[in-house]
Amino acid sequence: MAEQPCVGRQDRAVSVQSPHCTNYTLAHAHTRTPTPRLHTHTHTQQHSRTTRDFRRTHAGGGVVADTLETDPDFKLIDPKLTPLGESEAVALRPRANKLSPEVMVVSPMRRATQTGLLAFDQHVVAGRLSVVACELAHEISGKHTCDKRLPVATLKATFPMVDYDGIVSEDDPFWGDGMRRETWDELAARAADFTLWLRDRKEQHIVVAGHSALLAAVFNGVMTYSTDADSKNLRAWFQTGEMRTVEVVWEDPCQ
Question: Which of 3, 39, 105, 13 is nearest to 251 (CA)?
Fold first, then answer.
C-alpha cells in the first residue's frame, strides 16, 4: 500500500441488499459534489454457493482443507455454482432488471462469473451489457485448489459472452507452487490496484461480480466513509449471493 499513497477517497450514498434480498437504505453519505467524469455507481456482488461450499459443509460435520495434499488431482479447481447457488444468483434478477449498468466486471473465477451472468441475464441476453473479466478481481489465492482459476482457453469456451482480452496469463498468475497463501497485505494492494482500474474506466455505472475476501479488502482497505453507519455496514463481510450498491466519489487526498 505504501506505493499507492494517493489511492483516493470514496464517499457514498448507499442502498444495500441483505443476504435474503430484502432492501434497506442507509443514510445519505454523499458529502461532496463530484464532477460528472468521477461520478460512478458500482454494484458489487459476492458469488453464490459452490460445490466447494457444499463439501466444506457436509464433510462429516468438519471442514475439508482443499489443498494439494487433500486434492492432488484438482477436482475442486475453480468450482462452479451448485443449484442452490444458481437460485441465489437468479433471486437477484428483480433488482438487477431495474438497473441500467454500462459494463459488468467479473472475476475470472467461474463462480463469480456465473453469479454475475445469472443475476444480470436480461441485460446480457439483450446485448445491453458488456461483460469484462479482470484478473485483479480474483479471489484471495494460493494453497486452496478451489481458488485456482481454470486456463483462459477453458473459460473462453465456457463463457463466450465474456471479454477475456485483458487476461494476459493463460494460467492462474497467483497460484505459484500452490504451497503459499496470498497474504492479506498482498490482497489489499491488489484491491487498491483493482479500485484504480475501475476508476480509470470510461463507464460510470458498473457491476462487479467478485468474492468475499476481495470485496472485504476493497471495502476495508481502500474506501473511506463519511458516516459511521456507512462504515459499519459496508465494511461487513459479504454473504453468498449478496449485492450492495454504492455511489463512489473519487478524490485525491494528496491535494
Answer: 39
